[in-house]
């Protein structure tokens, strides 16, 4: 395992990035979309990164494309198996844990609800139970979703104090994961090593390297590659689209705060785009087409219930953590489309191109 030699980072770390240099860090879900980007960023900071996840389940997948195993101590295992979790903690002795491993797809949760409840609820409990027993572990960022809130169909963003809930299996399982995290924050951590636990509720993540089924950007890319029409279930649905690098930025800033000030930040935090950047599915497709034109559209009624309007209020993260992404909706979509275009045309350069996108984002923060 080697760390990324990133001359654009090195001695020019941002304040929040300095926390991770030389640290032993565990990322669950490192074979996934967001996990791959987070591991790549952490490795450029000089972190010793360990991963625990199931094997990638798409072909292609970001884990292989970025060669994540070359800069991460990778363990293929299941967070639902307590023994797998214990083994990786014993191996990694992590000071910081980013818990991203989950069943992340709404449709798959309808098809196999028990898997979603097991992974998102009991898997989270396994991670937090083991985290509170290891002396080295000081902070856990437990990543959930913007869909943890009870659906009120509001035109304004949900705040961290608003009611949690979920009528569909995916939302319910992630809302339940929040309750598990709260129990560990409030009463169980102090009965162990005092680990500081926070939850991060991110918006709809887009960016290069996602090939999951039933997601709009991967569907758009597949339609282009296969020269097939793109089927839209609900083009008027409103979502808080944001780039995966913006979410990774939020998770890093939150972990930095937990390490520096502990339980003061052991709370829930929303990470979503600015109000002006909350757009419909149709607007997302239209903007993608400006960078990568030629898509044909088809319309079909969805086979499962979806929220029409969803956004989160990130004022708390903006003011308390100082998290403010330097890119807007147009930047986000352009970065996403350009990544897939580069992969389609020059796949051998995509790792360097991904590093370039991270460094461009970092440069905009300085």
CATH topology annotation of the domain at 15-205 and 240-275 and 308-328: Rossmann fold
Beta-strand portion reads 5-15%
The CATH class of the domain at 15-205 and 240-275 and 308-328 is Alpha Beta
Number of strand segments:
13
Strand order of the largest sheet: 3-2-1-4-5-6-11
Let me know the largest β-sheet.
7 strands, parallel
N-to-C SSE string, H for helix and E for strand: EHEHEHEHHEHEEHEEEHEEHEHHH
Structural class: alpha/beta
What is the mean predicted local confidence, pLDDT?
A: 92
User: What count of helical segments does DSSP give?
Assistant: 12
CATH superfamily of the domain at 15-205 and 240-275 and 308-328: NAD(P)-binding Rossmann-like Domain
Provide the helix percentage.
Answer: 40-55%
Radius of gyration, CA atoms, in whole angstroms = 19 Å
3D architecture notes:
It is built from twelve helices and 13 strands. Helix 9 (281-291) crosses helix 11 (329-345) and helix 11 packs antiparallel against helix 12 (350-365). The strands form four sheets. The chain has a seven-stranded parallel beta sheet with strand order 3-2-1-4-5-6-11, sandwiched between helices. The model has no long low-confidence stretch (mean pLDDT 92). It is α/β, with parallel strands linked by helices and 366 residues long. The protein has a domain at 15-205 and 240-275 and 308-328: NAD(P)-binding Rossmann-like Domain (Rossmann fold). It is 42% helix and 14% strand. Strand 5 (139-143), helix 6 and strand 6 (196-202) form a beta-alpha-beta unit.
């Amino acid at each position: 395992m080697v760390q990324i030699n990133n001359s654009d980072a090195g001695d020019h770390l941002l304040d929040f990035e300095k926390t991770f240099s030389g640290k032993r860090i565990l990322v669950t879900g490192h074979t996934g979309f967001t996990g791959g980007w987070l591991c790549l960023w952490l490795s450029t900071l000089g972190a010793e990164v360990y991963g625990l996840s199931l094997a990638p389940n798409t072909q292609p997948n970001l884990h292989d494309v970025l060669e994540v195993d070359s800069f991460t101590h990778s363990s293929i295992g299941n967070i639902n198996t307590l023994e797998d979790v214990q083994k990786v903690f014993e191996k990694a002795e992590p000071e910081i844990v980013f818990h991203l491993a989950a069943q992340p797809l709404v449709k798959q949760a309808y098809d196999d609800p028990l898997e979603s409840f097991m992974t998102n609820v009991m898997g989270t409990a396994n991670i937090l139970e083991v985290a509170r027993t290891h002396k080295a572990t000081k902070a856990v960022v437990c990543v959930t979703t913007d869909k943890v809130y009870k659906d009120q169909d509001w035109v304004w963003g949900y705040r961290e104090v608003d009611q949690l809930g979920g009528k569909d299996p995916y939302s319910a399982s992630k809302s339940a994961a929040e309750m598990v995290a709260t129990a560990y924050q409030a009463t169980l951590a102090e009965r162990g090593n005092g680990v500081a636990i926070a939850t991060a509720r991110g918006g709809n993540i887009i960016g290069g390297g996602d090939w999951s089924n039933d997601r709009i950007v991967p569907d758009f890319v597949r339609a282009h590659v296969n020269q097939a029409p793109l089927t839209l279930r609900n083009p008027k649905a409103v979502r808080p689209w944001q780039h995966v690098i913006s979410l990774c930025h939020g998770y890093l800033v939150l972990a930095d705060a937990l390490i520096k000030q502990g339980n003061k930040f052991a709370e829930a935090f929303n990470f979503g785009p600015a109000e002006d950047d909350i757009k419909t599915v149709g607007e997302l497709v239209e903007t993608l087409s400006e960078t990568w034109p030629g898509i044909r559209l088809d319309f079909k009624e969805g086979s499962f219930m979806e929220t029409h309007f969803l956004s989160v209020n990130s004022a708390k993260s903006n003011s308390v953590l100082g998290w403010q992404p330097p890119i807007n909706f147009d930047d986000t979509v352009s970065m996403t489309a350009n990544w897939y275009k580069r992969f389609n045309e020059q796949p051998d350069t995509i790792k360097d191109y991904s590093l370039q996108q991270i460094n461009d984002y970092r440069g905009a923060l300085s």
